[in-house]
């Protein structure tokens, strides 16, 4: 049996209709370097989705690989209750200098969803232990994405992922979130005062008293199709959370680590959340690890004699894994020593201009949105009335397959094609992937 046959015999791939693999066989990747992943025939694919948004500094980055190799022969893993190690300690010390002020305590988990779960439990338990046991609800935006485990899926608002599980999910206060492309107030993304926040205000008035936390993806609802909204919304949200004693949980799993042009998206709004969740870019895309970072105020509500029963009795076997921590630490070294955020900013400006030039006035592109190095184009049937294609046509998926033939990995979100490349992408590669995307859309639609 060849590799593809064996793959299909044994492996159930994530987020896939396995029947699609009859037509598009799994692409077996043999090795990778920088922006490129190479299949077993040595065909390169430009990975402009950073392998699910986690690859931050290119594949097989020598510095990160070396850091892991060094750590590997010293300590591979150790129980993290009562025990600790240098990579974890150094990582937290370094991150504490970069993270928005007030975030001082680092809780480790081993993937993004589990960081969200930890944050939700932490928030609920905080209120329970500070005299507000009625605070049991969570608020979240329409089109939110916070992961796939049941708690995280509950706060998510993308039906594609959660619809069927509704009977199993927590009851959430769902707030109609910003939708700048189809703004109901007739505003424009870059010139508005987040009038749509009134939906959240009403929800706070009604449910604020019984709400534990509001979860939000700062500035970019990524899985929803890279929906970008203005910082003004976050500022208002921070204020409202303060008024109603509701925690603000910032899910920076996708947007943290320079993706939006700043280290953390919250910085655009100059706000600090009560809990910030990090993963994906955290280890440069090398190892599964996540963090829920919180404040002294929350931490102190758990600090008591053991028999008071206030401890946070939450753990994951692989939390604080030393290999992952050493990768994460090296990522910070590289960001600092190689001035990566500054380079990413310049790359972002170049890429945005290029995308704008290539795709504006295109007969099937309704919206071009951009922040930092994230660029997205929304394919629609008719830009004049913003009408989407029938979802059955799977236009985005067709464009994806076409671009793959030409060696570019552009896995879309519905009919939104996006670019979310490693921060170190080069100009020639931005030129290449934009051209391939242009041709792929042409071949499918024109
Ligand atoms: C990917 C993602 C998650 C979930 O992280 P996993 O590691 O896939 O569980 C949560 N929130 C956001 C915003 C994400 O992009």
Secondary-structure topology with pairs:
Layout: H1 3-10, E1 29-33, E2 36-39, E3 44-47, H2 50-53, H3 62-72, H4 86-96, E4 103-109, H5 112-129, E5 137-141, H6 150-155, H7 159-162, E6 172-175, H8 198-207, E7 211-216, E8 220-221, E9 227-228, H9 231-243, E10 247-251, E11 275-278, E12 290-295, H10 296-300, H11 322-337, H12 340-359, E13 365-371, E14 374-379, H13 395-405, E15 408-409, E16 416-419, H14 427-445
Parallel strand pairs: 3-15, 5-6, 5-7, 7-10, 10-11
Antiparallel strand pairs: 1-2, 2-3, 4-12, 8-9, 11-12, 13-14, 14-16
Helix pairs in contact: 3-11, 4-11, 12-14, 13-14
The chain binds pyridoxal-5'-phosphate.
The site of pyridoxal-5'-phosphate has 14 residues, from α5.
Compact summary:
The chain is of the alpha/beta class. About 35% of the residues lie in helices and about 15% in strands.
Structure description:
Strand 8 and strand 9 form a beta hairpin. The protein folds into two domains: 165 residues, Aspartate Aminotransferase, domain 1; 272 residues, Type I PLP-dependent aspartate aminotransferase-like (Major domain) (Aspartate Aminotransferase, domain 2, 3-Layer(aba) Sandwich). The chain is an alpha/beta fold and 446 residues long. 35% of the residues lie in helices and 16% in strands. The mean pLDDT is 97. The structure holds pyridoxal-5'-phosphate. The site of pyridoxal-5'-phosphate has 14 residues, from helix 5.
């Amino acid at each position: 049996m060849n590799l593809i046959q064996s793959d299909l015999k044994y492996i159930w791939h994530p987020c896939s209709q396995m029947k699609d693999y009859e037509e598009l066989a799994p692409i077996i990747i043999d090795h990778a370097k920088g922006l490129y992943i190479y299949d077993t025939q040595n065909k390169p694919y430009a990975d402009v989705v950073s392998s699910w948004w986690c690859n931050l500094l290119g594949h097989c980055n020598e510095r990160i690989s070396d850091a892991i190799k060094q750590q590997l022969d010293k300590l591979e893993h150790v129980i993290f209750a009562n025990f600790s190690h240098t990579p974890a300690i150094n990582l937290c010390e370094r991150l504490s200098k970069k993270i928005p002020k007030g975030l001082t305590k680092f809780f480790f988990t081993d993937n993004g969803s589990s960081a969200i779960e930890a944050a939700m439990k932490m928030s609920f338990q905080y209120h329970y232990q500070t005299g507000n046991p009625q605070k049991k609800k969570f608020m979240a935006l329409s089109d939110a994405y916070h992961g796939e485990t049941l708690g995280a899926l509950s706060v998510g608002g993308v039906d594609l992922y959660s619809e069927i599980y509704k009977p199993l999910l927590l009851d959430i206060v769902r707030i109609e979130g910003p939708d700048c492309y189809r703004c109901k107030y007739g505003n424009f993304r870059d010139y508005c005062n987040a009038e749509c926040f009134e939906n959240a205000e009403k929800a706070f008035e009604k449910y604020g008293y019984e709400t534990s936390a509001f979860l939000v993806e700062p500035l970019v609802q990524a899985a929803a199709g890279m929906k970008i909204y203005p910082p003004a919304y976050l500022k208002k949200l921070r204020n409202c959370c303060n008024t109603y004693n509701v925690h603000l949980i910032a899910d920076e799993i996708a947007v943290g680590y320079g993706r939006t042009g700043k280290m953390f998206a919250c910085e655009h709004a100059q706000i600090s959340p009560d809990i910030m969740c990090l993963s994906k870019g955290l280890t440069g895309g090398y190892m599964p690890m996540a963090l829920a970072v919180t404040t002294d105020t929350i931490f102190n509500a758990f600090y008591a004699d053991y028999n008071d029963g206030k401890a946070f009795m939450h753990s994951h076997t692989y939390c604080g894994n030393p290999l992952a921590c050493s990768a994460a630490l090296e990522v910070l070294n590289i960001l600092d020593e190689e001035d990566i955020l500054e380079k990413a900013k310049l790359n972002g400006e170049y890429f945005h201009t290029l995308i704008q030039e290539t795709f504006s006035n295109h007969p099937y592109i309704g919206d071009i949105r951009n922040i930092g190095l994230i660029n997205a184009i929304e394919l629609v049937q008719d830009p004049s009335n913003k009408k989407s294609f029938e979802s059955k046509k799977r236009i985005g998926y067709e464009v994806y397959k076409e671009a793959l033939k030409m060696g570019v990995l552009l896995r879309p979100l519905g009919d939104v094609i996006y670019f979310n490349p490693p921060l170190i992408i080069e100009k020639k590669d931005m030129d290449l992937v934009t051209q391939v995307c242009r041709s792929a859309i042409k071949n499918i639609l024109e």
